Amino acid sequence: MQDHNHSHHSHGHTYPIRPNRAFIIGIVMNLGYVIMEVIYGLINHSLALLTDAGHNLGDVAGLGLSLLAFRLAKVKATDVYTYGYKKTTILAALFNSMILMIGVGILGYESIIRIQHPEPVQGGIIAWVAAFGIVINGTSALLFFRDKDHELNTKGAYLHMLTDAAVSLSVVISGIIIIYTHWYILDAIVGILVILVILRGTWSLLIDSFRLSLDAVPANVDINKVMIEAQKVAGVKGFHHIHIWAMSTSENALTAHLVVENNLNNQQLTSIKNELKHQLQHLNIQHITLETEFQDEDCNPVC
Length: 303
Prior knowledge:
Alpha-Beta Plaits, 2 domains, four-stranded mixed beta sheet
């Protein structure tokens, strides 16, 4: 017996207005700060400021891509794009992480050159500009705090802003030390430390987004728990041919074959499927397609 049933009820966050507004505010604030860092970095020949500016510019680009993806994700499905453009949120996260990794390589090369040939910098200017960055990045992180556990791009933005605030603090400290010691090489060393911090945070985002782009089981879904919950439903005798993937960075889908007891009527089948869908929604699966079959049916791989 083949019975395709679709559940289109969302359980959790999808694309509310608040994250969109947060991304817009974050883009404006951080773009202004990038311009400020570049101006003072060039005037003062500070690699720490220029390195951080490059990092923040990557964040601005990432925020812009994420905002674009959110807007595209709201576009209605068509006969060609039957899921709409939800997948663009995953592609944006992947592209964002790739941009940051490329930036790490470029800035790493510049930092190594500067260690070999340190240049005089004004520690006071470095410290004040970086202190302003703590305020900008800290405020930006708060914008994404409420939704960071519900959406991958929002989580990435939150981690970036929080990391940037910590990086700005280290730049402040280095600027103060340079004022009193004139250890100009410290400017390049801090630049390398910034790169290591970027690399650590970006690697996780790169791996997560790459997995989702290949339709791997999302990290917030445990397939073993899914199978266990299915077996708990009265009347269910088997649950196989399971496929779980991410439709976007906030919505997951599942297709599976549901084996039920023989001779159940339509009302009983509907009750079993509704109960199972409810349990699966609590396991972070929002879109569910079930094909039912009776216990004595011989299901082969192409059924």
